[in-house]
Amino acid sequence: MTLHQNLIAGEWVGTNGVENINPSNTKEVVGLYASASADDTKTAIAAAKAAFPAWSRSGILERHAILKKTADEILARKDEIGTLLAREEGKTLPEAIGETIRAAQIFDFFAGEALRLAGEVLPSARPNIGVEITREPIGVIGIITPWNFPIAIPAWKIAPALCYGNTVVFKPAELVPGCSWAIADILNRAGLPKGVLNLVMGKGSVVGQAMLDSPDLAGITFTGSTGTGKRVAASSIEHNRKFQLEMGGKNPMVVLDDADLTVAVEAAANSGFFSTGQRCTASSRLIVTEGIHDKFVAALTERLKTLVVDDALKPGTHIGPVVDERQLATDTDYIDIGRQEGAKLAFGGETIARDNPGFYLQPTLFTEATNQMRISREEIFGPVASVIRVKDYDEALAVANDTPFGLSAGIATTSLKHATHFKRNSEAGMVMVNLPTAGVDFHVPFGGRKASSFGSREQGKYANEFFTVVKTAYTLA
Ligand code: NAD
Q1: Mean pLDDT over residues 358-368, rounded?
Q2: Nearest to 9 by CA among 56, 41, 53
């Protein structure tokens, strides 16, 4: 089997390969991917540092052309890359192709942003002096990504980093190196100069830690668990570098008595269970007012019965497998905890066997949960959601905000008054009205509050807040 190597200083290097296993069929090896050492990581950081002066002064047409070429190739190969994504991560093929298209859109957007770089010119407070405000790249950026969006998250960090003139050391999650290798290969062939993007696949405790320990990274942009995010933060403060964290969620979806039942059920089914519930924006707390509670639970349970859990590549599959054995154990542990805490198991709860050996779990719905239970407070990151009964909108809002997290929040209602109030008073970074809490656009800011995020927003033009630093220059006329 071909070994997919790391890209360091423009060369493909590495000898020791790790098997990338398909969670829909654990007998199937998706590919063999190199595992970098701490020394390889140091070499990659040195290469990115050496490449920075030239790339930071590169022309906008060069940046535009490389990013646009990358977008075009990803789009042209969406079925092939989408299939690779579904095989390595386990989301269904339509979801995986959708994510691949999104990655292409992100590269396309930042290809355009390269042509729209701009500053401001202001008069000084003093006569005969002009003031220019410009944005400059910050240097070498460390990019550390999780396994649940194997192509979209790398895209939304790599594309702006390069667009604004930074160089990159990129460490994808161990479980899903395939799509990251594909991005690095495409950018490399699109003409990126040597050392501008370095791919270092490998363990978090080795490659990731070597990045955290390096004094030569000007910034780290991280998406992953809150625990690892705290390590990124602590090391960044020690090294006086910029950092941006996108972490866990425990997203609420409020359903009010006046909701359109079909809209509410569809939003909850999508947010809670699609992509196997493995989205940071998934809603795992369904906060439902008394008047609609029983109807909503009955309709959602009926909807869950229609969802087919099977091989990610099989036509007709709605929910693919859980990503690996460890995540499956976490999910089933939380299902046991929910039962012990006194929540009622209304649907699912069991692992299931399919034709191929894989990590299959039924979509699982608890009812009669309280917001104090561990299943309501801790991120599970699987196809498990709980219904919390409340008496009215005011209690629903209070429960929605009573969480350490603050990424996304949704409300299903036909009341303009409640929708407007919820948008203003939800303590989440993103608010959805009559829509799933998951599923966002590529050209607008993405991010949360409280323990979900730290630092400036990702995506859209707001990305420049992290990937650039502002300079103010005064000139005597
Ligand atoms: P994780 O924290 O285990 O791993 C994330 C990345 O950090 C991986 O590349 C891993 O190898 C690396 N890492 C691990 N230990 C490290 C260390 N000591 N030093 C440096 N890097 C290290 O998270 P995960 O399990 O891959 O992803 C799931 C989590 O990601 C969930 O909590 C989910 O909510 C979160 N997530 C958040 C968002 C968001 O935008 N808020 C998006 C997707 C996923």
Answers
A1: 98
A2: 41
Tell me what pLDDT residue 16 has.
83
68: three-class secondary structure by DSSP: helix
User: What tokens were used for 239?
Assistant: 């090294």
Active site residues: 246
Q: Give the Å distance between the CA of 240 and the centre of ligand 1.
A: 22
Cα 123 to chain center, whole Å? Answer: 41
The whole-model pTM stands at 0.98
> Which atom in ligand 1 lies closest to the alpha carbon of residue 453?
41
How many angstroms is it from 426 CA to the middle of ligand 1? 25
Q: What secondary structure does DSSP assign to 231-253, as a single string?
A: HHHHHHHHTT-EEEEE----EEE
Please name the fold of domain 251-433: Aldehyde Dehydrogenase; Chain A, domain 2 (3.40.309)
**Percent of the chain residues topping a pLDDT of 70:** 100
CATH 3.40.605.10 maps onto the chain at: 3-247+452-476
The residue assigned the tokens 């000898």 is 15
Determine whether the shortest distance from the Cβ of 452 to ligand 1 is under 6 A: yes
Count other Cβ atoms within 10 Å, centred on residue 435.
Answer: 18
> What residue's CA is closest to ligand 1, atom 16?
204
CATH for 3-247+452-476 is 3.40.605.10
- Delimiting residues of CATH 3.40.309.10 domain(s) in the chain: 251-433
Cα–Cα distance, 428 to 288 (Å, whole number)? 18
